[in-house]
Design a protein that fits this description.
5-stranded mixed beta sheet, 3 helices, 28% strand
Amino acid sequence: MSRSVHTAIGEYLVLAELLKRDHEVYLAHGPTQTEWDIVKCTANGVKRIQVKTISWPKRRTVNLNPVTEYDYLVIVLLNKPTTPNEIRNSFFLIIPADQIAPLLSPYNAKRQNKQRTIYISSILSDIQTSNLGIHLNNWNCILTE
């Protein structure tokens, strides 16, 4: 599966999750919206959502620019089935932009304004008990605004 297909799947999964929770959201398009993927309309304006999708648990890192132009980062842990009839749940890490910095790897901290990495365990119970656990499927942080 190509990277662009992974990207589209993640964006549409996030869009669907927000729509089924009855929120006004749209895919962001165009050159003025390159730093985010989804726009959530609120009474106080818009919230910008960046979506990163990884083929989890095979892939366990997310690279991103720590200089954010968005309000939320949603990391889609795309848990793809290995057979046509198999069902696997994908998971979401929903992180407000102001809470991303502590999650970035210290190993590439010297990279000023360049790509940084968030490491994610391949084991769900390890994610739940790690510093990422509070962000696991935490749609409320987006939905309350």
